[in-house]
Amino acid sequence: MKILQIGGTGFLGSHIAKRLIERNHELTIITRNPDNEMSFDKSKVKLIKGDILQPNDLNISEKYDVLIYTAMIPFKPGRISNRKFKELEKITRQYFQNTIDLAKKLSCTLILTSGASFETKGDEVADENWAITRKGMAALGKCYDEMVSEIKISNSIPLIEMLPAQIYGNGGMFNKLISMAKSGRTILLGGGNNFLPRVHVDDCADAFLLAIEKQPVGKRFIICDDLNATVKDFMLHLGAAFGANKTIIIPKIILRMVIGKHIYNTLTMNTKVSNKRIKMELGWQPKYPTYKEGIKSLIL
Ligand SMILES: NC(=O)c1ccc[n+]([C@@H]2O[C@H](COP(=O)([O-])OP(=O)(O)OC[C@H]3O[C@@H](n4cnc5c(N)ncnc54)[C@H](OP(=O)(O)O)[C@@H]3O)[C@@H](O)[C@H]2O)c1
Question: Is any atom of ligand 1 closer than 6 Å to the C-beta of 71?
Answer without folding.
Answer: yes
